[in-house]
Each structure stands twice: as C-alpha cells, then as structure tokens.
Amino acid sequence: MGEVTVFSEDAVAGCLPGICVRTGVPTDDRLSVRAPVHAGGTRLGMAWLLILLGPVGWLVLVILALTRRPAGGLVVRVPYSAVAQRKLFRARRSERTAGVAVVALMVVEIVVLVTRPPSVGAISAVLLAGVTVAAATTVVSALLLMPMEVRARLDASRRWVTLANVGSGFAFAAWEQSRSHVTSHTEAVGLEHWPAAS
Questions:
Q1: How far apart are the C-alpha atoms of 128 and 108, rounded to whole Å?
Q2: Containing H/E element for 138?
Q3: Which residue among 21, 88, 110, 140 is buried most deeply as judged by most CB within 10 Å?
Q4: How big is the CA angle at 41 (ends 159 and 38), to the nearest 5 degrees?
Q5: C-alpha 167: how far from chain center
Q6: What are phi and psi of 178, to 5 degrees?
Q7: In this structure, what are the phi and psi dihedrals at residue 6, rounded to the nearest 5 degrees?
Q8: Confidence (pLDDT) at 68
Q9: What is the pLDDT of residue 191?
Q10: All residues at 6 or more sequence positions from 15 whose CB lies less than 8 Å from its CB, including other chains
Q11: pTM surpassing 0.85?
C-alpha cells in the first residue's frame, strides 16, 4: 500500500480517478473519509495513562477511544468499490460490537464488585473472562480493520490532502491527475514543490 498527495478541492468534491483506492477496480462509488489537519488529530495522547487506574481507568479509556473524533479538517470522498465498502463496514461493526461488549462487561464487573452479591468471586471471574475475550476480539478486529481503512490528512495550508494506505494503481492515477492540474496552472503552483506519490 502507498500514499499520494492530491488537491484538497478534488478530494472534497470526490473528483479523483474512478479506481477503487483499495482494490484498483473501476468504480463510481465513493466513501467519505475525515482528513484531520496533520497526522496527530485522532490520537488519545496522555489518556493512555488511564490504564494505570485499573478497571475504572480501562473503562474510561475504552469509552474515549470509541467516542473520540478528530477536531477540524475536512471530509473527503475517495473512490471505494461497493464490495470493498461492505467488507470495511463489516469489520467496523465487528470492532464496535466487541468494544461495546468490553464496556458493558466492565460496568457489570464494577457493579458486582461494589454490591458484593453472594458468590461474588465466581461471578467476577466469569465477567473478567468475558472482558478478556471481548478485549482480545476488539484488538483482533482493530488489527484486521487497520489495513482496510484509507487514512487522510490535511496539510497546514489546507491545500493538499495526503491519502495513505491506498493501492499503487490508484496512487499513480491520482498523482497523474493532480500533476496535470499543476502543469496547466504553472503560474499558480511551481512544479518544483509538487508532492510525489509513494
């Protein structure tokens, strides 16, 4: 998988080559992707220290990870075939379901530990096993999802969008399209500053 830098106007309007960014097959379908300014827009930063607080910290961290959205940026539309979109949505749904299961089981675990019902040890052990399985499923789902998602980031000038984790066929076609735009407007944009595809 590679990356390519394109005009933000083309990316927002969905005026990119009609080639699926993942599979390279021709497509007219588009998928919306958020492009934060710079790469750090979706990270949790110091929130990872919540792990040190035990189950309550883990619960807060999971909720933050599930609800956090990047601030600022643009929503860009990239070519994404219907088949690839179905696979992506299934993987996202699996990750979300596992994440919700982790949160729900941890809430129940905390309630059990606070109320201390009869046979609290056995109930707690079963719930802890469930949390472990759900957390492992969340991690596996996230790892499977990672190579399927196109990542976009907007540069500080807001003129360029870099699309990462795209197929080489799409990267080359998008680079050629954007290069032809630059060539036709050489007075506005110098070719020596043109970002290359990788």
A1: 10
A2: helix 120-145
A3: 21
A4: 35
A5: 16
A6: -65, -35
A7: -130, 165
A8: 65
A9: 47
A10: 9
A11: no
Could you tell me where the beta strands, DSSP code E, fall in 42-181?
Answer: 74-79, 151-154, 160-166
Query: What is the per-residue pLDDT for 40?
Result: 45
Q: Which amino acid is at 24?
A: G
The residue type of 127 is L
Q: Is the dihedral of CA 152, 82, 1, 192 positive or negative?
A: negative
| Residue of 165, 157, 150 lying closest to 75 (CA atoms) | 150
* pLDDT averaged per 10 residues, the chain (length 198): 86 90 91 72 57 69 66 81 92 88 86 85 89 86 86 84 90 84 54 51
Radius of gyration of the chain measured on its C-alpha atoms = 22
Structure tokens at 136: 């492992």
Return the amino acid letter for 160.
Answer: W
Residue among 70, 69, 68, 65 at smallest CA distance from 102: 65
Q: Which residues contact 160 (CB under 8 A, 6 or more apart)?
A: 5, 6, 7, 8, 154, 195
The pairing of beta strand 151-154 with beta strand 160-166: antiparallel
In one-letter notation, the amino acid at residue 170 is: F
Tell me, what's the pLDDT at 25? Answer: 92
CA distances from 13 to 33, 46, 113, 167 (A): 12, 35, 52, 20
